[in-house]
Write a structure and sequence with these properties.
single chain, 69 residues, mainly alpha
Length: 69
Protein backbone atom coordinates (compact mmCIF):
# COMPACT_ATOMS: atom_id res chain seq x y z
CA UNK A 1 0.00 0.00 0.00
CA UNK A 2 2.87 2.35 0.78
CA UNK A 3 4.37 1.77 -2.68
CA UNK A 4 1.10 2.78 -4.35
CA UNK A 5 0.94 5.94 -2.28
CA UNK A 6 4.57 6.80 -3.10
CA UNK A 7 3.98 6.20 -6.80
CA UNK A 8 0.90 8.44 -6.83
CA UNK A 9 2.73 11.22 -5.02
CA UNK A 10 5.73 11.04 -7.37
CA UNK A 11 3.60 10.83 -10.50
CA UNK A 12 0.77 13.28 -9.87
CA UNK A 13 1.82 15.71 -7.14
CA UNK A 14 4.32 17.64 -9.30
CA UNK A 15 1.59 18.31 -11.88
CA UNK A 16 -0.83 19.40 -9.18
CA UNK A 17 1.71 21.75 -7.65
CA UNK A 18 2.71 23.14 -11.05
CA UNK A 19 -0.91 23.77 -12.02
CA UNK A 20 -1.61 25.40 -8.65
CA UNK A 21 1.33 27.77 -8.96
CA UNK A 22 0.60 28.55 -12.60
CA UNK A 23 -3.08 29.30 -12.21
CA UNK A 24 -2.60 31.25 -9.00
CA UNK A 25 -0.04 33.56 -10.65
CA UNK A 26 -1.35 33.76 -14.22
CA UNK A 27 -4.95 34.46 -15.22
CA UNK A 28 -7.10 31.56 -16.46
CA UNK A 29 -7.94 33.23 -19.76
CA UNK A 30 -4.36 33.37 -21.07
CA UNK A 31 -2.68 30.61 -23.09
CA UNK A 32 0.64 30.48 -21.20
CA UNK A 33 -0.33 28.19 -18.28
CA UNK A 34 -1.89 25.67 -20.65
CA UNK A 35 1.21 25.66 -22.85
CA UNK A 36 3.48 25.18 -19.82
CA UNK A 37 1.40 22.28 -18.52
CA UNK A 38 1.35 20.70 -21.99
CA UNK A 39 5.12 20.98 -22.25
CA UNK A 40 5.49 19.45 -18.77
CA UNK A 41 3.44 16.43 -19.88
CA UNK A 42 5.55 16.18 -23.03
CA UNK A 43 8.79 16.29 -21.04
CA UNK A 44 7.54 13.63 -18.63
CA UNK A 45 6.47 11.26 -21.38
CA UNK A 46 9.55 11.49 -23.58
CA UNK A 47 12.20 11.79 -20.87
CA UNK A 48 11.32 8.26 -19.74
CA UNK A 49 11.61 6.94 -23.29
CA UNK A 50 14.96 8.68 -23.75
CA UNK A 51 16.29 7.28 -20.49
CA UNK A 52 15.14 3.80 -21.46
CA UNK A 53 16.84 4.01 -24.86
CA UNK A 54 20.11 5.21 -23.30
CA UNK A 55 20.05 2.35 -20.79
CA UNK A 56 19.30 -0.10 -23.62
CA UNK A 57 22.26 1.14 -25.68
CA UNK A 58 24.62 1.12 -22.70
CA UNK A 59 23.63 -2.41 -21.74
CA UNK A 60 24.26 -3.76 -25.25
CA UNK A 61 27.37 -1.68 -25.96
CA UNK A 62 25.79 0.34 -28.76
CA UNK A 63 27.48 3.67 -29.49
CA UNK A 64 24.79 6.12 -30.65
CA UNK A 65 27.40 8.42 -32.22
CA UNK A 66 28.90 5.75 -34.48
CA UNK A 67 26.22 4.51 -36.94
CA UNK A 68 28.40 1.60 -38.11
CA UNK A 69 27.88 -0.41 -34.91
Amino acid sequence: MNAIFDYCLNKFLPYLLLATVLFSCVPWDTWEPYAILGLAFFIDKFSFKTGYSVAYCEKRGIDPVDPEL
